[in-house]
Amino acid sequence: MFNRLFSIPVLQFTALETRGGLAKRIIPCLDIKDGRTVKGTNFVDLRDAGDPVELGALYAQQGADELVFLDITATVEKRKTLSELVKRIARHINIPFTVGGGVSSVEDASVLLKSGADKVSINTAAFKNPQLIADLAKEFGSQFVVLAIDTRKEEDGEWYVYLNGGRTKTEAKCEDWARQAVALGAGEILLTSMNHDGTKQGFALDITKKLSEELSVPVIASGGGGNMQHFKDVFEQANADAALAASIFHFKEIEIQDLKEYLYSHKIHIRI
Question: Which of 29, 70, 131, 233 has its CA 20 to 30 A from that of 202?
Answer without folding.
Answer: 70
